[in-house]
Design a protein that fits this description.
Blueprint lengths: L2 H30 L5 H9 L8 E12 L2 H7 L2 H21 L3 E6 L2 E6 L8 H26 L6 E16 L4 E6 L1 H11 L6 E4 H7 L3 E3 L5 E3 L8 E9 L2 E2 L10
Parallel strand pairs: 4-6
Antiparallel strand pairs: 1-3, 1-4, 2-3, 4-5, 6-9, 7-9, 8-9, 9-10
Helix pairs in contact: 4-5, 5-7
Length: about 260
């Protein structure tokens, strides 16, 4: 076999490998690009042995939901309502990505975010708390835009929790999503359900891990018995993070 033939065979093999890697990267981007941050996605692409599968992992969870959105959807023009909702989500997504959160789902106007998956992050609780504060502070900008468009002001409640969850691909060969399930996921959702508009509530587990920069409104701490959760849990009212405080006077009295 001549040198030219060997070289041509090697070049063909290299081209085949390049095409295989390109197809692999394109598949990962199309499958996970919509709900993983760019940083995490690039890390996955650089690691040839990385696989996302079912696993137990200690993570921080953030559940956010708009208040009174069902009533607004019935009162507003559908096109205007969706435009307002999409602008709200765009603003929130920017902040979530900045704090290394991974959006697992949009459920109507609700956002489900995990910190510390699919890659471990020892600062997951801190990031979740700081992210929640930044999200609430950004609502002033959201509502300023709403008023300029002739839309009503909106408010959001956020629940935070930290604990073990099962994470992995859920679905079938034709449709799959990366998601988390378990008791702690249900608890995080219930914590969000206890919030008023403009409020952030967090469990003991999240607060203990978030660090000293967390600002708490201890007078608003409460004991609750969430539906489907055995026993009482204590919820802390987060008033800010670091130098950034929330304007608690804007917290709605009705949930």
């Amino acid at each position: 076999m001549s040198n030219e033939t060997i070289i041509a065979a090697l070049e063909a093999e290299n081209e085949q490998l390049r095409q295989t890697l390109y197809q692999r990267d394109a598949f990962i981007r199309s499958t996970f690009g919509r709900y993983l941050t760019d940083e995490v996605l690039e890390e996955i692409l650089k690691d040839k042995d990385f696989k996302i599968g079912g696993e137990r992992r200690d993570v921080a969870m953030l559940f956010a939901d708009l208040r009174g959105s069902t009533q607004l959807s019935e009162q507003m023009d559908p096109v205007d309502f969706i435009r307002m909702l999409n602008h709200f989500l765009e603003e929130m997504i920017e902040i979530i990505n900045a704090w290394q959160g991974n959006i697992l789902d949009f459920v109507g106007d609700a956002i489900v975010v995990v910190f510390g998956a699919p890659r471990d992050n020892e600062l997951s609780a801190r990031n979740a708390a700081a992210c929640a504060v930044a999200m609430q502070r950004r609502m002033a900008v959201v509502n300023e835009w709403n008023r300029a468009q002739g839309y009503p002001d909106i408010s959001m409640g956020i629940g935070l929790h930290k604990g073990e969850a099962i994470l992995g691909n859920i679905g079938s060969e034709t449709r799959t999503k990366y998601d988390m399930i378990g008791r702690n996921v249900n608890l995080a959702s219930r914590v969000q359900g206890c919030t008023a508009g403009g409020q952030i509530l967090a469990t003991d587990e999240l607060v203990e891990e978030a660090g000293p920069s967390l600002i708490l409104n201890e007078a608003c701490a409460m004991w609750v018995t969430p539906k489907g959760i055995q026993g009482q849990i204590r919820l802390h009212d987060i008033a800010g993070y670091g130098k950034h405080r929330l304007d608690n006077s804007k917290v709605e009295s009705e949930k």
